[in-house]
């Protein structure tokens, strides 16, 4: 047990710090709270390209692909140090956390050589085309069809909730190639050019007024068979690998809904009718609630990391992170706005404390409790995969898919 | 960085777990709960033979000098088995107070006897009707004598040495009192957990030795003990979860195992999440304790609160999952439920620790600024 850096880690941290100190200044000068999405995306692309020059954009990748063969610990050290700076929102989260490692595992050398550099130059954003109107928690219930015609696949159907599809150049896609097989067995995994004829992206407005996710329609979209990842009808396995990469990436940083320091600063700046808020025991209790989650998950992440470093893959127990954090952040955001009294309704970044971070969290937390596995699904996962309790009844699991549609 | 106990430490913990489940199964704890007054001292002595009390004590004071990480793992196992011995009173509190504040002569005189199991010590700090945390202490030390009342005092029925928190010339200090002194009066108290006896302790002109002044204040011992108690609480919470899972898989109603009901699964998933969160805080705190890191107090308070919450949740849901059976004296559920509530209060309750944690966070913020 040693929470201090080893000499090599300290040296790596020193390098990272020096690099960040030299390279962040032009990015930290902006006011991201009030900037338009387009401007922020453009800055994010430049920031990714800048990081890629030094190997920090996709650290885990082999050097040949622009990474630095980083250990999980080095990724965390980088994330910790980067978190000290004000930088553009990371529009490359799905790209680098899910799509790139999946490509690296399953794509041909030619595609890797052609596509990975375009990501690292900040040019290509990828999206994840998994969920559909009939398939969210029950992902294997998806209906988008993939039919083989010669050396091509023809895709028809609809995806939904696709984050960043409106920005994306490429997407990873799971579709049904054989509806006569049971639901998990008839799926095949592809990647596709989002500019392909027949792809239509329609933004969906979220409760916070933003439109980061989309509906995506496919009408006779053609994908070459060479863009298939994994074997035909083994798409479920590949999709599970992608989700494993997602867990791995998630372990390295918090969801960023509410930063404890922001909440603490807000509390310290507030006077209630009977004195400073921090002297009120109920206030302290709620402040402590969020501290315990954020700080505890940091240490939990370190424990996961030690397991990773020892060669153990991230297991289902990692599900508890998002479960605790999203619910906790929602409660903390409610609490923070409560403290502000009536003024707590104001989300204008120029007026609200911390640039309206807490009001934003009120509006974003419900989405985080759903995205990437709902609270209920995460609890099922913990109960079944970690605690060994019986699985939910799945009456349709063994039936041919075309009999349950 | 490395956030795991070492292979040797884990093997040691497994060995301790085997020893305790053999030597002190829950049936033996039940005997204590049922009123057997001799059993606790017997277990105390048996465990001294196994060397438990000596774990972190320096070798020149009769210990093994292993360290606090090992002591934390021992604490987790004691908690898992709700072992009814005065480990908190004697080792985490009284011995720590002596180690922190005692003179060399005092340490040499008392500590070897405590770790060998010959003596049982207890820290008497709480007083009736007041919160002593802020130096608001009525018990006085003057002219080599103590007068005042302490309540509740853990394990006073078997303790033969008391470390007493008192005021001396306007300062909070620890004093040593021989348990057999005729001016001491103890009175047994009815408490929530029958397996952990407590008493009222009255001193009037009781001869006492003052522990020397030290740079660290008297609170230090509570922060250090909080880390060890957090491991006990987490061990208890883990035992509750295990027992709830086992029972849920056995019990069939409406033609199916109750483990297949989502309400039960989600409850247990929440217990698991709370326990792992607490364990993560406790890992960090164990390291801070072992290193005497400057973050010790913050880490200890965080671990204390997270572990208290995890054990409270786990032990309450343990009874819930067991249904009516869980509410019987005969079932083991109440051993955990009662111990959890007692531990939640034993080093003072959560609001005090919340205040301490926030104090530490404020101090950290000032230092950073
Ligand atoms: C902000 C946001 C971004 C997203 N981005 C993407 C993306 O980029 N790509 C992508 O593919 N998808 C994305 N999603 C989709 C997301 O993965 C799904 O919304 C999620 O898996 C839930 O599926 P659903 O919406 O169909 O809800 P449903 O599965 O219909 O769930 C409805 C309710 O039923 C509950 N429920 C369902 N099954 C069970 C069960 N077995 N036991 C108990 N309760 C159950 C759920 O917990 C939920 O409360 C995003 C979603 C959000 C909110």
- Cofactors, ions and other ligands in the entry: flavin-adenine dinucleotide
State the major sheet of chain B. 4 strands, mixed
CATH architecture of the largest domain in chain A: Up-down Bundle
Helical content band of chain B: 40-55%
- Main β sheet profile of chain A: 4 strands, mixed
Uncertain regions spanning at least 5 consecutive residues of chain B: none
Number of DSSP helical runs of chain B: 11
**Most extensive interface:** A-B, 48 and 48 residues
The low-confidence parts of chain A are: none
CATH superfamily of the largest domain in chain B: Butyryl-CoA Dehydrogenase, subunit A, domain 3
**How many independent structural domains of chain A?**
3
The structure class of chain B reads alpha+beta
Structure description:
The complex is a heterodimer of chains A (about 400) and B (about 375). Chain A is of the alpha+beta class. Chain A folds into three domains: about 5-90, no CATH class; about 125-235, Butyryl-CoA Dehydrogenase, subunit A, domain 2, CATH 2.40.110; about 255-385, Butyryl-CoA Dehydrogenase, subunit A, domain 3 (Up-down Bundle). Helices cover about 45% and strands about 15% of the residues of chain A. In chain A, a hairpin with a 2-residue loop joins strand 2 and strand 3 (about 150-160). In chain A, helix 1 (about 5-25) runs parallel beside helix 4 (about 70-80), helix 9 packs antiparallel against helix 10 and helix 10 packs antiparallel against helix 11 (about 355-370). The longest helix of chain A is centred in the C-terminal third of the chain and has 29 residues, at about 280-310. Chain A starts with 6 loop residues before the first helix and ends in a 19-residue tail after the last helix. The mean pLDDT of chain A is about 95. Chain B is of the alpha+beta class. Chain B has three domains: about 5-115, Butyryl-Coa Dehydrogenase, subunit A, domain 1; about 120-210, Beta Barrel (Butyryl-CoA Dehydrogenase, subunit A, domain 2), CATH 2.40.110.10; about 220-370, Butyryl-CoA Dehydrogenase, subunit A, domain 3 (Up-down Bundle), CATH 1.20.140. Chain B is built from eleven helices and ten strands. Chain B has helices spanning about 5-25, 25-35, 40-50, 70-80, 85-100, 105-115, 220-250, 260-290, 295-320, 335-345, 350-369, and strands at about 120-125, 140, 145-155, 160-170, 170-180, 185-190, 200-205, 210, 250-255, 255. In chain B, the strands form three sheets. A four-stranded mixed beta sheet of chain B has the order 1-4-5-8. A four-stranded antiparallel beta sheet of chain B has the order 2-3-7-6, with no helix packed on it. In chain B, strand 4 and strand 5 form a beta hairpin. In chain B, helix 1 runs parallel beside helix 4. Chains A and B meet through helix 9, helix 10 and helix 12 of A and helix 7, helix 8, helix 9 and helix 11 of B. The complex binds flavin-adenine dinucleotide. Flavin-adenine dinucleotide binds near residues 128 and 380 of chain A.
